C-alpha cells in the first residue's frame, strides 16, 4: 500500500532534506509531496 504524505513548506531549505530522509526511513512506502508556498530560500 502506498501512502501519500503532503508536507507544506515555506522557507524550509535547511530542514526539508532531513524531513524527507526521515520520512523514507519511517514510511518506506510513502510518497512525499512537498507544497512550496512561495519560499524565498532554496526550498524548491
Protein model, in words:
This protein has 44 residues and is of the alpha+beta class. The protein has one domain. It is built from 1 helix and 2 strands, in the order E-H-E. The chain has one helix at residues 16-26; strands spanning 3-9, 30-36. The longest helix has 11 residues, at 16-26. The model has no long low-confidence stretch (mean pLDDT 94).
Give the proportion of residues in helices: 25-40%
Residues in β-strands, percent: 25-35%
What is the total number of structural domains? 1
Report the end-to-end length measured between terminal Cα atoms.
Answer: 28 Å
Chain-averaged pLDDT:
94
Biggest sheet descriptor:
2 strands, parallel
Largest sheet strand order: 1-2
> How many individual helices?
1
**Helix-and-strand structural type:** alpha+beta
Number of strands: 2
From N to C, what is the helix and strand string? EHE
Topology:
Elements: E1 3-9, H1 16-26, E2 30-36
Parallel strand pairs: 1-2
Short description, anyone?
This protein is α+β, with helices and mostly antiparallel strands and 44 residues long.
Amino acid at each position: 500500500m502506498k501512502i501519500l504524505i503532503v508536507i507544506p513548506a515555506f522557507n524550509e531549505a535547511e530542514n526539508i532534506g532531513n524531513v524527507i530522509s526521515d520520512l523514507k526511513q519511517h514510511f518506506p512506502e510513502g510518497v512525499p509531496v512537498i507544497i512550496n508556498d512561495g519560499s524565498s530560500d532554496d526550498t524548491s
